[in-house]
């Protein structure tokens, strides 16, 4: 993992802190998760946020061996 210093608006930090608490995540993991969703959404504007979250969850399930096949385009 690479560490970088970034400047983030205080309101965005507060919003992300609320998101982190609702998702039961620490601030850093919530930031990484929100960035991943945002980047996928920019690259795939036809997908809804719920579809993106389902794809991420399916990839995690596949990586953990909970499902044997994963038939989605690589995101």
Q: What are the secondary-structure elements, in order, as H or E? A: HHH
Poorly predicted regions: none
Number of helices: 3
* Number of structural units classed as domains: 1
Number of strands: 0
Task: Determine the strand fraction and express it as a percent band.
Answer: under 5%
Mean pLDDT across the residues is 89
Shape: globular
Largest sheet: none
Radius of gyration: 14 Å
**What share of residues is helical?**
55-70%
N-to-C CA distance = 20 Å
Helical/strand content category: mainly alpha
Topology overview:
Blueprint: H1 10-22, H2 27-43, H3 49-63
Helix pairs in contact: 1-2
Task: Characterize the structure shown.
The chain is an all-alpha fold. It has one domain. 60% of the residues lie in helices and 0% in strands. The chain has helices at residues 10-22, 27-43, 49-63. α1 (10-22) packs across α2 (27-43).
Kindly summarize this structure in a few lines.
This protein has 75 residues and is an all-alpha fold.
Provide the descriptors you would attach to this structure in a database record.
single chain; 75 residues; mainly alpha; 60% helix; globular
């Amino acid at each position: 993992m690479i560490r970088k210093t970034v400047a983030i608006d205080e309101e965005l930090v507060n919003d992300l802190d609320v998101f982190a608490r609702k998702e039961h995540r620490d601030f850093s993991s919530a930031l990484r998760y929100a960035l991943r969703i945002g980047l996928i959404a920019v690259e795939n504007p036809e997908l809804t946020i719920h579809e993106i979250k389902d794809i991420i969850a399916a990839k995690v399930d596949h990586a953990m061996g909970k499902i044997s096949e994963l038939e989605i385009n690589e995101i």
